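no rush on this but wanted to send it before i forget. what follows is a protein written twice so to speak, once as letters and once as structure tokens for the fold. mainly i need to know what kind of three dimensional shape the backbone takes. thanks a lot i owe you, the record is right below.
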Amino acid sequence: MTPFGTKLRELRKKRNITMKEMADALSVSSAYLSALEHGKRGLPTWYMVQRIITYFNVIWDEAEELQRLAEISNPKITIDTAGLHPKATELTNQLALKINGLSDSSLEHLLHQLRVVAAKDNI
């Protein structure tokens, strides 16, 4: 699952909405919605995110959170390190090789460390 898919499922379950009901309301297939929730589709379009925000009638912080989660939920990311420092290439390759075996706590730790370093470097 992606962060966006997890949030989408959470909103749907909290409101006792079936996938079929939501898919019908959004004029998409249940298969598409399922793939979106499970991270088997690429990023949802901006338009689709707006339709989902409207469907759930969320405002302000929750709407912004859905948009942010959509932006960081590409399940098929490609990282081009050409022209970057060799350590960037090493980091990318090590992550690609080992990400599948990392525990939830290790993933959370790495995400936290990346956020701290990015804030320090004003990225």
